[in-house]
Amino acid sequence: MPALIEVFPCRSDNIGVLIHDPATGATAAIDAPEADPILEVLAAKNWSLTDVLVTHKHADHVEGILPLKDRYDLRVTGPGAEAGDIPGLDVAVREGDRVRVGTLEAKVIATPGHTAGHIAYWFEKDEMLFAGDTLFALGCGRLFENSPEEMWQSLQKLAALPDATRLYCGHEYTQSNARFALAVTPDDPALQKRAAAIDATRAAGKLTIPVTLGEEKATNPFLRANEPALAKAVGLENGRAADVFAALRRWKDKF
Ligand SMILES: [Zn+2]
Question: Residue 253: what are its φ and ψ, rounded to 5°?
Answer without folding.
Answer: -60, -30
